[in-house]
Sequence to fold (536 residues):
Amino acid sequence: MSKQFKWADFYMEFATKLLEYRKDRSVLIAKLQAVYSNIGMKLPKLEKDNVPKDIDPFTVFGLFNKGITDTNRITILGGIALEFGITAEIPDDFSGIPVLNNMMATFYAFEGDERRKDDDIDNLWKVFEAAINFADTDTQENRSLFMSAYDQVKSQFAIRWNLTMGLYWIRPYTYINMDSRNREFMSNPANISANVVAEMKSMKSVPTAEKYLSIRDKCKAAIESGEYGYASFPELSHKAWIVSVEKGEMEKKAKSGKSNAAFLRWFGPVLQALRDLGGAATPEDTRKRIIENEHLSDEEVNATRGKNNVNKFENEVAFARSYLVKAGYIDNKVYGIWTLTEKGQSVEMTDELASEIFKNGVADNAAKNKEKNSLGDADVDTVHYWLYAPGEGASMWEDFYAAGIMGLGWDELGDLNTYASKEEMAQKLRDIHGGDSSYKNSVHAVWQFVHDLKPGDVIFAKRGRSEILGRGIVESDYEYDENHDGEYPNIRKIKWTHKGNWQSEEMFAMKTLTDVTNYTDFTSTFFEYLTPMWSL
Fold:
């Protein structure tokens, strides 16, 4: 087992240990309180009155798998190891681990919420136990018990894709995580087999147990084929993270021209490899032919770049291919196959032509965006520009993009139009959650979402503090979905115009919604950078 994923030993041992408390959850809760008392930290809010009377095992795992620092994470795991007698080494690296939204870090609704059913927590324990038994002993009986428990739980409130995350936490070499980042990664035929890609592209909601296990088995087969550069589900999850980050870094370097000597080198070899292979080939076969034609050493083929150690050769070849598609030398109509056009069959690729293709690609992107008025604010008198986080860690981005909306949580407030002031909202939250918090930042974002956003305003969806995932135009006033079955009942209709991954050197505010219209230094630098990238 890779040292990079040594967390798996700790997680699996702790999951097995938790089974001892299925029938005595009051003892489990007491031990969790002891953990936090011993490490000098406050137990996170797990119930409306702060002290849970019951708890499920996935929520326990969520205590150290959400948006917290690695230092706090290690401290919590140290306290757990001491209190529960865990013998595995306390991990200090968390590569490949998906995390929860801090605002929705329990797998159940709080007591008093009508969406909380009497057997919700019992059902979670059933699927937890069944998942461990099936992972440890793969029999038809254990499979059937797991499938039954999974299907019973998946439609409960606060579950959704978190269920696959939880299964992955407790047995990461058996169950595949299917959060938004992994689903996007597995939708690309360059990253996994075509039958998995087809499943990802057709998937509209959390799969049934039968479908989930089918996808898991197809992913396992793809991994075992040795064609994709990762050997386990944790490695796949980690690579999905790397690819999303590196994609933004590559595009930023292409815009600045700093990558010319690196990826322009591959324009000619890509075309020649495809010619040698009859005019069409998979990315893998194309790379193999380039290695053969260019007599590349193992050192050149396996070289990595950046702090995430991404394969330099593979990334630069992929980036060269994208420009050749844009210039009309390669056809991209068939997923997973690179096909030469008639133009690509006959062109003589010189260094000068490669540079011209690169420059024309950047200039063309800039011109197209200029025609769109760059920020899309034609016919709007006063346009505001907003940075927006679609869920913690952008967990809802794919769903919101597909639905043509942006959503906001705080479902406990109900219809936000019923509040006459920010203070009224804040008081309602204090009534619900207790305490004397001002909720200043949260209430301000909610208020702006309802009253300050206007049709025609420009939204930039973000992940973290430096990554943009998309751009859109507000198309509707605030709407409250009375029949919502999730945690985002507050919505605005959005015309999403762009989708991808773009890295900014500027650091964004951490707030869910930020009006950046008046930050002229920031917006001019930021938008100037993004303008030529939108159609890459």
Remarks:
- Residues 252-261, 365-381, 531-536 have pLDDT under 50 and may be disordered.
- Residues 394 and 463 are 5 Å apart (CA to CA).
